[in-house]
Amino acid sequence: MADRDHGGKNSDIPGWSWIFAAAGLVLAVGSAGFMLYQAFAGDSSPPQLVIETDPVVPSGRGHLVQIRVTNRGGSVAAGLVVEAILREGTATVETSTITMGFVPSGSQRRAGFFFSRDPRKFDLQILAKGYVQP
Question: What is the CATH number of domain 49-132?
Answer without folding.
Answer: 2.60.40.1620
